[in-house]
Amino acid sequence: MRLPASFRRNLRLMRIAHILATHGMAALAVRLRLFYPYVWVVQLLRGDELPKDLGAQIRLALEKLGPTFIKFGQMLSTRVDLLPIDVALELKKLQDDVPPEPFARVRRVIERSFKQPLTGEGGLFAEFHEIPVAAASIAQVHFAELRDGRQVAVKVRRDHISRTIESDLAILRLLAALFDRYFPEYRRLKAPQVIEEFATSIRGELNLRAEAAHASRFAENLVDVEGVRVPEVLWDYTHTEVLTTERIIGVPIDEKARLEAAGHDCMKLCERVATLFFHTVFIDGYFHADMHPGNIFVDESGEIVLIDFGIVGRLDMKTRRYLAGMLLAFLKEDYHRSAQVHLDAGFVPADTDLSAFEDALREIAVPIFNRPLGEISIAELLLSMFAVTERFKMETQPQLLLLQKTMVVIEGVARELADQANIWILAKPLISNWVSRHMGPAGKAEAVSEELRSQLLGWMQLPQKFERTLSRLEAEGGPLAPEPSRMQLLLGVALMTGGSAWLAWLAARDLTGATMLAAAVILGTGLLLTLSGS
Q: In terms of C-beta density within 10 A (0-12 exposed, 13-18 middle, 19 or more buried), how is residue 122 classed?
């Protein structure tokens, strides 16, 4: 018999209150009104000691609350705009490691997805290994053999994991609402929005067909990158709950002794990792956001093989230009230029005291760059930089927070391969060339062209959008202007948009004089027509 949903939710909330109380956070549970008489009693009767630091207490609590909360903690570990750095670093230790699903359930998921037996006569596979080679909270991986003899790896989503995650997301939403209500001084953290971001991310991981699409795109993007590849996706054996790829035989990239014993050049592998990271971030703007060593292998030929594309990051060209300019400025130790890059990108307000911001960047960067070459960490630099966001009202950039998490892992991988090398020094020539191409005169002209094209496209579409809006209002019986006024209004809006686009283009190219005056006249005429027609 299945218990009512409300009863199950209250039991789960009581467990959360108990775990908070037994991990040094009784005050938090009480303030959230989570069974606080019970919490007081539990706290009073506790006798064992807890870790002294808050980060360790939160990590242990999340580990006890289960897979959804572990993944939530992993996401929070990137949010140094929300958490103290020491807590964020502690949460990076969270491991998504759970017991494997019973094989009967694995079989049920596959047979339900493909409507045929797993093995045997008319079966999907010639052979399927019952013991998984890897198990995580959302899915686990089994080796198998197709009927044509090909060796494959089959990732199978846990049965009913979607229902479990939705139930936990409902609990997290409730906790976020309570946090917003009873901690008004922390409303700037936007707890409900953070939960919604997490919900979008974890739901994306549930769709293994989407992961297959990510893998396919990476394979296309990396086809010209020497020494790097992605396993082939077998689409006929892939479903929302099942992902089948070619089986990879290789050595995890962090096992240096095995790599050297197999005759691989670890310094060359380190250079390939630098090239891989640079290419996906700057050239493609589409990077693997879960590049821990367990997802990077080296095969017999020495090629780097990426797996597990459940989480990806995307960077638009504006963000890539900012990132390249910022990295190059830091690598040259030009802190004034780095501050200017932030201002030009619009990541800090236009009225920011540039000198004070430069001093803040110098304060966090100099200690890092004074270390030996192999210990210089751009990921740590970004982490510290995000910590000054509140002081300078720097806008939070979620895509950069995800990138910073990936940087930490990549730097660790590079140090394992070659402890005296630095991935950023290896990538510096690549970054310099990219900056020359995309941020030099030709790149600026291209950026202006892209902006102008976007503005003009919006201008061309505006009259149709405006006409549709008026038509909808008319159909709903709303008050409308007479037909001549409507056309005047449309013309005014079009002239305003066109004049604004022209002014933006002229300003981007530092052009002044008669052309700028003409653009201003068009803008002003449009404004007058709009006001008189409304």
A: exposed
- Residues linked to residue 228 through DSSP beta bridges, in sequence order: 304
The greatest distance separating any two alpha carbons of the chain, rounded to the nearest whole angstrom, comes to 83
Picking from 494, 493, 499, the residue whose alpha carbon sits closest to that of residue 521 is 499
Q: Which DSSP helix (H) or strand (E) runs through 505?
A: helix 483-508
Choosing from 290, 308, 334, 351, the catalytic residue is: 290
**What proportions of the chain, in percent to the nearest 5, are helix, strand and coil?**
65, 10, 30
Q: How many Å is the Cα radius of gyration of the chain?
A: 28
Amino acid (one-letter) located at 110: I
Confidence class for position 143, pLDDT limits 50, 70, 90: very high
Three-state SS at 28 = helix
Q: Are 276 and 222 within 8 A, CB to CB? A: yes
204-208, 360-364, 417-421: range with lowest mean pLDDT: 417-421
* Of 528, 527, 465, residue with least CA distance to 500: 527
- Residue 395 per-residue DSSP state: P
DSSP 504: H
**Separation between Cα atoms, residue 16 and residue 68, nearest integer Å:** 13
Flag whether pLDDT at 118 surpasses 90: yes
Q: Is 510 a catalytic site residue?
A: no
User: What would the two tokens of residue 343 be?
Assistant: 């201002």
184 CB neighbour count, 10 Å cutoff: 8
> For helices 378-387 and 354-369, what crossing angle results, to 10°?
140
Tell which residue, 264, 270, 283, has the closest CA to residue 224.
283
Question: Cα separation of 219 and 359, whole Å?
Answer: 43
Type and span of the H or E element at 512: none
Question: From the DSSP assignment, how many helices (H) and strands (E) are in the chain?
Answer: 21, 11
Q: How far apart are CA 505 and CA 513, in angstroms?
A: 14
For residues 335 and 108, give the distance between their C-alpha atoms in angstroms, rounded to a whole number. Answer: 58
- Alpha-carbon distance of 78 to 396, in angstroms, equals 12
| pLDDT, mean of residues 51-80 | 76
d(CA 184, CA 287): 37
Alpha carbons within 13 angstroms on the beta-carbon side of residue 166 total 6
What distance in Å separates the CA atoms of residue 426 and residue 432, rounded to the nearest whole number?
A: 11
For residue 356, how many C-alpha atoms fall within 13 Å in the half-sphere facing its CB? 8
CA–CA dist 49, 247 (Å, integer): 47
> In the prediction, which pLDDT does 233 show?
97
Count of CB atoms situated within 10 Å of the CB of 97: 12
The pTM of this model reads 0.73
Q: Which tens digits make up the pLDDT trace of 227-273?
A: 999 999 999 999 999 999 999 999 999 899 999 999 999 999 998 99
Condensed to tens digits (0 to 9), the pLDDT of residues 153-198 reads: 999 999 888 888 888 898 888 888 888 887 777 776 778 888 888 8
